[in-house]
Amino acid sequence: MEIRQLKAFLAIAEAKTFTAGAKMVNVTQAAISMQIRQLEDEVGLPLFTRTPRRVILTEAGEHLLERARRMLREHDAAVAEIAELGGVERGRLRIGSASAEFAAVQLPHILHALKVTYPNSELSVSAGTSQTLVDKIMHGETDIAFVSLPVENSSITTDLLFSDEIVAIAHPKHPLAKKRSITASELAEEKLILGERGGNTRRMIDDFFNDANVRPNIVMELSRQEAINQMVENDLGVGTAGAKTINDEIREGRLIAWEIEGSEIKWEQGLARLRGGYVSPIAKEFMRLCKESFVERKKELKARK
Known about the structure:
The chain folds into 2 domains: 3-84, Winged helix-like DNA-binding domain superfamily/Winged helix DNA-binding domain (Arc Repressor Mutant, subunit A); 96-305, D-Maltodextrin-Binding Protein, domain 2. It is built from 11 helices and 12 strands. The chain is globular. Helices cover 47% and strands 23% of the residues. The protein has helices spanning 3-15, 18-24, 29-43, 59-84, 100-117, 130-138, 184-189, 200-211, 225-233, 247-251, 281-303, and strands at residues 48-50, 55-57, 92-97, 122-127, 144-149, 156-170, 181-182, 192-195, 218-222, 238-242, 256-260, 266-274. α1 packs across α2, α1 (3-15) packs across α3 (29-43) and α5 (100-117) packs across α11. It is α/β, with parallel strands linked by helices and 305 residues long.
């Protein structure tokens, strides 16, 4: 089995068509078809069932899938280790971020510092939900990702960077603005503006309502916390946010916050990577810079109180 054949096989398995798979690995459809034909000849069994609209993995293809991913991860790790012999200025790091705020505020400074130590490095950044980025790590498409925690995958290891209590937020003119806390049933009756599904925080909020046996009135689902805050500031509904991150809005009278009775929802964020995988020097430096950045972030938020 050749590396290019395994890459072609994985591309088609994930893209579901030969045409899309060929684009993923930058070859022609004829070339990728030949690579799969050679691979099938070698294993002695068909790997895909061809249908008019898409391809489906056969039993043999399903058996090969995880092994191919492991082989390619080992291949990439070997290439990275050998590349280190060329000097510490080099390195490749594929980064994922499930937080728009982190990507916009902290990540640019972290990458700038990383480039000082690794001026000839290859850095790439992708966005997505926490689950999407964990899947990319599992598939060998991303090396390390900033995600919401916890990650329920035994093949992934994580480092906690930031933790905050989730509170309910509302416009200062809300009828219940003078209250310090709100119950699950009271909160469920509000026009709720929550984060999009796919993140751990949203999952924990949904679980909280399920455990309380109430059905929330969700009117908006947004991908960015800043957007949720703005909607609430414009009195379009009630949202949730990390208590530490809304100090400015509370102090300036743009928002009020309630503790959520019976809730122990923590907004936790950190770095995820493959458990037991090779951690390159550039990845170690990235992790160090992230931890340093969040130490400064916590000091900054504390100073705003």
